[in-house]
Amino acid sequence: MNTMLKIIKYELRDVIRSKWILIYFAFLFLITEGMFQFSGSSSKVLLSMINIVLILIPIITISYGIIYMYSSREFTEMLLAQPIKRKTLYAGLYSGLALPLSIAYLGGVGLPFIFHGVDESGQFSVLLILLLSGVALSFVFTSLAVLISLSSDDKVKGLGIGIFVWLFMAVVYDGALLFGSYLLSEYPLEKPMLGMTMLNPIDLARVLLMLKFDISALMGYTGAVFKKFFGGPFGMLLSSGMLLLWILIPYLIGKSIFVKKDF
Amino acid sequence: MKSIFKIYILLLLTIIILRQTELCARDIIVDKSGSLTSINQALRLCQSGDRLIVKKGYYKERDIEIDKSVQIIGENFPVVDAEFKSGLFHIKSDGVRIEGLIIKNSAMSFVSEYAGVKIDSAKDCVIKGNKILYNYFAIYIAFGADCIIENNIIAGRQSKSETTSGNGIHLWYSKNITITNNKISNQRDGIYLEFSENSTITNNISEDNLRYGLHFMFSHRCVYKGNIFRRNVGGVAVMYTKFIHMYNNKFENNWGPASYGLLLKDINDSEIKYNTFHENSTAIYLENTMRVRLERNNIIDNGWAVKIKSNSTDNDFVYNNFIDNTFDVSTGSKNNYITFRKNYWSKYSGYDLNHDGYGDVPYKPVGLFSAIIENNSPAMILLRSLFIQILEAAEKVVPVLTPVKLEDVQPLMRRVK
Amino acid sequence: MIRIEGINKSFGKLHVLKDVNLEIESGKITAVIGPNGSGKTTLIKTILGLMKPDTGKIFVDDKDISKGVEYKNKIGSMPQIARFPENLRVGELIDMVSDLRSRKNGVDKELFESYNLDNELNKMMGTLSGGTRQRVNAALAFMFKPEILILDEPTAGLDPISSSEIKDKIQKENKNGKTIIITSHILSDIEELSENLVFILEGKIIYNGTVKGLIEEKGKINLERTIASLMESNGK
């Protein structure tokens, strides 16, 4: 543990000093702050942030994560020549990547909300879900980035796989869902659709956020099914559990690769 | 000359007689500890023009028939309780006034319209400042005219079924009725009009009703101003009527699969202005509705701002604010006979190079996704998906499913004050 | 002492190390040489734990290295190409390695000082020239007084002065009783420094003995000629 914290400490210093993480922070901060200046109402800012969270976090995290993992290959090798267990090093490398990405996100989006506040106290829980699901997505896509970069030694191929994974989860998957819902439109599809969204972390985060924002549109039968599920303790538990699995499973596969890997 | 004198004398006599009766008008006291302990008993003694002063107390009465022009005035809110056995006040005479009473517990019935106050074929009645509680119907006016319903608090039983509950204020073949400053809740429909014309409904609050906050049919030339309709199961539904004027009303928090801020069915030649629609599943729904002008309304935070059935024609949306609605406009088909002009759309992302206040690019308020979920409702779970956003962007460039002509060619850059 | 027992290592179809058995003598300088792709870097990386053998075991001071990482405290290594985290300062990098090691032998800053790296302490690794980076790399290998030094092409990328300084350092540490493993393409360096020689060809050890012994055996004038004849006799 102690060794892991040391690794995190030095990697954190490296990552935070790299201009990319600062650009990421500044970008999120300027967008959020800019939206406050432009629209003035915190509810509108929150709404616009859904897109930021759902589109930007996954693509930026996965591509930055993959690039960082490849470029830190020699650093990893150097650390491996030191008396450090591979498991510890893996956990340290992962955290050293996931933490600054999450901190940049929390700071970039959270600070403007601290400066401006929210209009109604009810929006506080919305902000909380926005921040939490953003952090969860940062961790999920860091896990995927680490796994992908360990699965292939070819940097270009790795980045390609990463972008494909993102494209699949953000776009293709939903397209397939829509297509499927047309094919099977004679059947009651609310629950199968619900099940399918649980299998995609971006969809999962999106539905959690959507239920907070688009309540009025969701009061139809379909929405009621979704709302009942995600609004209840079981749905909340299940969806956070699924997000956790999305963090853990790629993390653990990556770990087993890392422990055996030749550098 | 002689005849003119005769008429003068006749007039003079008439005035004297009229004043005479007025002078003769008595105050009759109904008091639990007095000689007259019931309203029914007092009514038998009194004659037109008398005032019944009902002292504070608990009066278990029912079927109070009023066939004389009397005033029944409560002091410190005496309670009149029908114990769910029958109806309460039944006004059959013109010029009756009922004020300051707590009118409770008229019976539920499937055969007769029991009510707290029923006005039957009478004019010039005033129902004012009463608390009309837990009745089947609260106020029921059939074939009435020129009546004023004012400052009453009306609350039904909190039963869960709309069939065991009557309407708050119910008008049937009535005209020139003024309904103002009432607060109505937990009835079936808050305010209900059928075949009732030229009435004015202002500053009422109608909320938490089991069906509609306001519901009318075949009730032409009525004015609705400054009312608040909120949290009603079905919202507000109005049908088969012409020449409606709705100004400055608020339609709020009407949530549910069949809940509408304002549902217009077969409404013609009407004006809907300065209203606020906030947090409704569907703010405004138009079906077979023609020549309605919707102007300067604030339509904010609704699921659908406007849903249009294609049999609606020649309606005009001007200077409305469409702000933060999940869907702006949805139409059942690709055809459109409705115009949107000079509205403010919070989703509009165009520019205004010549600074005339209008965006240079038309705004298309019908999104592809709203067309998709029209016939594939489980797809709702894809709301705000990147895939959907890409589809919508593509659809905006090359419309396939959405009406080509439905657009606001002069979208406002700033919201209408 | 390092003992290697029956190591096999393949990358896909490529059989890189073929049943390698080897003992590295303590207190001596052993050179590992062989043409590119012969498996010498793989062998070194396997000792360092960067690569895992398919079969076989490696013992450092009679302890199986697959059982723990403690043995790395005894090893100072200098990789061939040193790329470091770009946004760490030289001083922080040294602190980090120092943090991660046991440091029970104390600190040796001799090479660090002779390379004048004190002036570079506050510079980011990313801003250093290749030569300076290589000097940091070398200095780090010696810094924590390891009992075993594994140096992969130690003179490559160094200017002649730095190069001769590291050679002096290697000989000095050898006199202090350190076990040193070197790979190099510069055979004159090996001739100058090493006592023992391991020659690997296509994953097999062709020669394991003293440098002098090999030259005498082949009857050539120097190591370069000797190696050339050794490769010819193996059909290369």
Protein model, in words:
The complex is a heterotrimer of chains A (263), B (417) and C (236). Chain A is built from eleven helices and no strands. By secondary structure, chain A is mainly alpha-helical. Chain A has one domain (2-260). Chain B has 417 residues and is mainly beta. Chain B has a domain at 25-211: Pectate Lyase C-like (3 Solenoid), CATH 2.160.20.10. Chain B is built from four helices and 38 strands. In chain B, the strands form two sheets. Chain B has a 25-stranded parallel beta sheet that branches. In chain B, strands 3-6-9-12-15-18-21-24-27-29-32-35-38 form a 13-stranded parallel beta sheet, with no helix packed on it. In chain B, β1, α2 (39-45) and β2 (51-54) form a beta-alpha-beta unit. Chain C has 236 residues and is α/β, with parallel strands linked by helices. Chain C has one domain (2-233): Rossmann fold, CATH 3.40.50.300. Chain C is built from eight helices and ten strands. In chain C, β7, α5 (160-175) and β8 form a beta-alpha-beta unit. Chain C is globular. The two termini of chain C are 32 Å apart. The chains are: A mainly alpha (263), B mainly beta (417), C alpha/beta (236). At the A-B interface, α3, α7, α8, α9 and α10 of A face α3 and α4 of B.
Topology:
The complex is a heterotrimer of chains A (263), B (417) and C (236).
Chain A: H1 2-17, H2 19-39, H3 42-71, H4 73-80, H5 86-116, H6 122-151, H7 155-183, H8 190-198, H9 201-213, H10 221-231, H11 233-260
Helix pairs in contact in A: 1-5, 2-3, 2-5, 3-5, 3-6, 3-7, 3-9, 5-6, 5-11, 6-7, 6-9, 6-11, 9-11, 10-11
Chain B: H1 2-24, E1 27-30, H2 39-45, E2 51-54, E3 58-60, E4 64-66, E5 71-74, E6 79-81, E7 89-91, E8 97-99, E9 102-104, E10 115-120, E11 126-128, E12 131-133, E13 137-142, E14 148-150, E15 153-155, E16 169-172, E17 178-180, E18 183-185, E19 191-194, E20 200-202, E21 205-207, E22 212-217, E23 223-225, E24 228-230, E25 235-242, E26 245-247, E27 250-252, E28 260-273, E29 276-278, E30 282-287, E31 290-295, E32 298-300, E33 304-308, E34 315-318, E35 321-323, E36 327-331, E37 338-341, E38 344-345, H3 368-375, H4 386-397
Parallel strand pairs in B: 1-2, 2-5, 3-6, 4-7, 5-8, 6-9, 7-10, 8-11, 9-12, 10-13, 11-14, 12-15, 13-16, 14-17, 15-18, 16-19, 17-20, 18-21, 19-22, 20-23, 21-24, 22-25, 23-26, 24-27, 25-28, 26-28, 27-29, 28-30, 28-31, 29-32, 30-33, 31-34, 32-35, 33-36, 34-37, 35-38
Chain C: E1 2-11, E2 14-24, E3 29-33, H1 40-48, E4 55-60, E5 63-64, E6 75-78, H2 90-100, H3 110-114, H4 130-143, E7 148-152, H5 160-175, E8 179-183, H6 187-193, E9 196-201, E10 204-210, H7 211-218, H8 223-233
Parallel strand pairs in C: 3-8, 3-9, 6-7, 7-8
Antiparallel strand pairs in C: 1-2, 1-4, 4-5, 9-10
Helix pairs in contact in C: 7-8
